[in-house]
């Protein structure tokens, strides 16, 4: 249930932004969440709805993009997708990889009026 | 793009800076409920308590049972009751840090709340995470929770004495670990019977010493 804690932090940022930008209504919140974060989108959405109930973001739509895992090989430079938990380079076999995507928890944009 | 957990991340960075100044190593121990974190700590304290100055942060959902089990070692222990929360975060750690005299410590072991998913997402300001998993849980835990096994500095496979009574297959476990993270040590232990503890004590002692001797 890390969904609830993450939703709490997300709603705090959304409300803080709405206040700063003097939004009367937040209509949409776009987030990117890496596959490795293992979030359950439905649970995350319910938790978010609870957190923003009776606020300017009470009617906001939460759009969740789940981002697949991608790594860059430090040895041969290949940009690779990770499937079936196989954390080694599909081009050269090296396990010296740098994570590009898969662990993010980002707010892409907050829309309102 | 803003990190949703940036409040947690900023506080974790402060904790990390403070501990680095005082040369205190912090180890974040993560496992399922019942994998043997507290027994591991009992064994580890029994061995290392005379060699290093150790503090404990016990994350517990509602009780103080784990903390009570460690009281016999007469070391500083602080309990964080998460009141139902499934993980510790950097704010809770930061709040209790001043219950310790950091200059009198070499290492703080944090026993996180028993859970393999949520604690992996929250940086506490630790130097590294330890994944503890027991054979009775099955051999598929690395495959199901890859993030923890990617990010841990070592894996402690506990309860190897129970393998004959379970469907745990060491080959499957090792194969998955090889795919997910072949660069970290996997210690095969039985914290009740004592198997493999020597190698673990040696490894963790080196990490503590290394941190104390940092410039």
Named CATH topology of the domain at 2-68 and 101-112 in chain A: hypothetical protein PF0899 fold
Number of strands of chain B: 8
How much helicity do the residues of chain B have? 25-40%
Number of domains of chain B: 1
Mean pLDDT of chain A: 95
Question: Architecture of the domain at 2-68 and 101-112 in chain A in CATH?
Answer: 2-Layer Sandwich
CATH class of chain B: Alpha Beta
CATH architecture term of chain B: 3-Layer(aba) Sandwich
Distance between the termini of chain B: 36 Å
Poorly predicted spans of chain A: none
Bulk shape of chain B: globular
Largest sheet of chain A: 3 strands, mixed
- Please tell me how large the radius of gyration of chain A is: 17 Å
Radius of gyration of chain B: 17 Å
Biggest sheet of chain A: strands side by side, in what order? 2-1-6
CATH C-level of the domain at 2-68 and 101-112 in chain A: Alpha Beta
What can be said about the biggest beta sheet of chain B? 7 strands, parallel
- Write down the oligomeric state: heterodimer
Going by CATH, what is the homologous superfamily of chain B? P-loop containing nucleotide triphosphate hydrolases
Question: How would you sum up this structure in a few lines?
Answer:
The complex is a heterodimer of chains A (113) and B (215). By secondary structure, chain A is of the alpha+beta class.
What would your notes on this structure say?
The complex is a heterodimer of chains A (about 110) and B (about 220). Chain A is α+β, with helices and mostly antiparallel strands and about 110 residues long. Chain A has a domain at about 1-70 and about 100-110: hypothetical protein PF0899 fold (2-Layer Sandwich). Helix content of chain A is about 25%, strand content about 30%. Chain A has helices at about 1-20, 40-50; strands spanning about 25-35, 60-65, 70-75, 80, 95-100, 105-110. In chain A, the strands form two sheets. A three-stranded mixed beta sheet of chain A has the order 2-1-6, covered by helices on one side. In chain A, strands 4-3-5 form a three-stranded antiparallel beta sheet, with no helix packed on it. In chain A, helix 2 (about 40-50) links the parallel strand 1 (about 25-35) and strand 2 (about 60-65). In chain A, helix 1 (about 1-20) packs across helix 2. The radius of gyration of chain A is 17 Å and the shape is elongated. Chain A starts with a helix and ends with a strand. With about 220 residues, chain B is α/β, with parallel strands linked by helices. Chain B has a single domain (about 5-210), classed as P-loop containing nucleotide triphosphate hydrolases (Rossmann fold, 3-Layer(aba) Sandwich). Helices cover about 35% and strands about 20% of the residues of chain B. Chain B contains eight helices and eight strands; from the N terminus they run E-H-E-H-E-H-E-H-E-E-H-H-E-H-E-H. Chain B has helices at about 5-20, 35-50, 65-70, 90-95, 140-145, 145-150, 170-180, 195-210; strands at about 1-5, 25-30, 55-60, 75-80, 105-110, 130-135, 150-160, 185-190. In chain B, strands 4-3-5-2-6-7-8 form a seven-stranded parallel beta sheet, sandwiched between helices. The interface of A and B includes residues 6, 84, 106, 107 and 108 of A.
């Amino acid at each position: 249930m890390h969904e609830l804690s993450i939703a709490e932090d997300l709603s705090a940022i959304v409300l803080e932004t709405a206040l700063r930008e003097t939004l009367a209504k937040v209509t949409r919140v776009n987030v990117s969440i890496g596959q490795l974060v293992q979030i359950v989108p439905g649970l995350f959405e319910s938790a978010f709805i609870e957190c923003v109930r009776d606020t300017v973001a009470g009617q906001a739509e939460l759009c969740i993009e789940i981002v697949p895992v991608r790594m860059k090989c430090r040895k041969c430079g290949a940009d690779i997708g990770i499937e079936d938990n196989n954390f080694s380079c599909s081009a050269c076999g090296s396990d010296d990889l740098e994570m590009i995507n898969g662990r993010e928890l980002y707010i892409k944009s907050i829309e309102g009026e | 793009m803003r990190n949703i957990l940036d409040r947690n991340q900023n506080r974790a960075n402060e904790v990390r800076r403070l501990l680095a100044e005082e040369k205190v190593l912090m180890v974040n121990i993560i496992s399922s409920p019942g994998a043997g974190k507290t027994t591991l700590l009992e064994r580890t304290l029994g061995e290392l308590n005379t060699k290093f100055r150790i503090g404990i942060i016990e994350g517990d959902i509602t009780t103080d049972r784990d903390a009570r089990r460690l009281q016999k070692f007469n070391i500083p222990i602080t309990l964080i009751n998460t009141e139902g929360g499934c993980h510790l975060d950097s704010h809770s750690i930061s709040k209790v840090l001043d219950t310790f005299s950091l200059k009198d410590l070499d290492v703080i072991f944090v026993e996180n709340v028993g859970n393999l998913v949520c604690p992996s997402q929250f940086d506490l300001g630790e130097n590294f995470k330890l994944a503890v998993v027991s054979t009775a849980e099955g051999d598929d835990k690395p495959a199901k929770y890859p993030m923890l096994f990617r990010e841990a500095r070592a894996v402690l496979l506990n309860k190897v004495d129970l393998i004959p009574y379970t469907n745990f297959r060491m080959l499957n476990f090792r194969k998955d670990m090889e795919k997910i993270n072949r660069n970290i040590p996997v210690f095969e232990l039985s914290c009740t019977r004592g198997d493999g503890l020597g190698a673990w004590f040696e490894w963790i002692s080196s990490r503590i010493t290394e941190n104390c001797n940092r410039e």
